[in-house]
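[#protein-structures] MJ: dropping Gfo/Idh/MocA family oxidoreductase here for a structure pass
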Amino acid sequence: MSAVGIGIIGVGVISDTYLENFAAFPDTHVVILGDLDPERAKAQAQKHGVAESGTADDVLAHPGVDLVVNLTIPAAHVEVSRAAVAAGKHVWSEKPLGLDRDGAALLLTEADAAGVRVGSAPDTLLGPGFQTARRAIEEGRIGRPLFAQTTFQTQGPDLWHPNPAFLFAEGAGPLLDMGPYYFSALVSLFGPVDRVSAVGTRAREERRIHTGPRAGERFPVEVPSTIQIVTAFESGQQAQSLLSFDSALERHGVVEIHGTEGSIVLPDPNRFDGRIASVAPLGVLRDGGRGEQEWVEIPHPDLTVGRGLGALEMARAISAGTPHVASGELGLHVLDVLLSAQESAESGATVTVASSVAPVPMLPIDFDPFTATL
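AK: finished. structure tokens for Gfo/Idh/MocA family oxidoreductase:
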């Protein structure tokens, strides 16, 4: 047994945090980086002490690569992941799993036939924050969960990103860029989604780049920049979600679960830790009095983790022959939910979600990414 060999395809900005974390996990070893621009891959390899670099094909052909980490742009996710499967490699893909249902489903079918696994971001679901909050809910902290509210609203990434057009293009917008975090969390808590209703709008037909060498350039807004979604789950629970790039008021990371015996706030689903707190009902109020609700803080393990945790857990699950948490099946169902919401916003009709997913497993309470197990 030894550390799993990892090859990374795509060395954009997000690759830094993956490489830093893989270097800290004893069970992972990055052996090669690949990119459309081999010189960029070489520079990133030198920066992080990775022995080899080259193209995507070099990664796929490398005999020491057991697991391909796909950090390419969303439009290339399925193509690159299918190539990795064809090469006999397990795959971890950044979110979303793909941009269309058929392509993502084909990827999973081919992986199953090849006897390899697919995992899909976000892996914040494995963070100590979300895991602790989910455990508190399952232990009955708020009674039977009834409904959820989630919020992500910001002025938009065009204010800080030097090349933001792709975030407002088909396949992105707040729905497909940020939605995977919130809906992966909700599906992990409530199970598969039955149907969705949504409304969307674009505040402007064009946006402007505000920073970097292209500051002042304008670009089109191709998808809703604000979308509101009502979700009904197969289990009977409901959720109301706002995703917006149009809000002057910055408010994000809001996940509230309300149950028969109380409510709980969860950490930002785009983070691995954060505040967890619950509150009990006020009880009976008489003579116009109003009591103060007392928040009970719920501590979680002080464990600094980040992107790459999902790939690590998947590698360990492969070795143990157990299901991994952030599975391709979860990624496909969440993609189906998000595309259904998009279709509902376009048509004005409620859309039934065709896919489903098995219950999402939890991490063992003693899971430690910094202990060698392989």
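MJ: nice. The domain at 4-120 is CATH 3.40.50.720 (Rossmann fold).
AK: one more thing. The radius of gyration is 21 Å.
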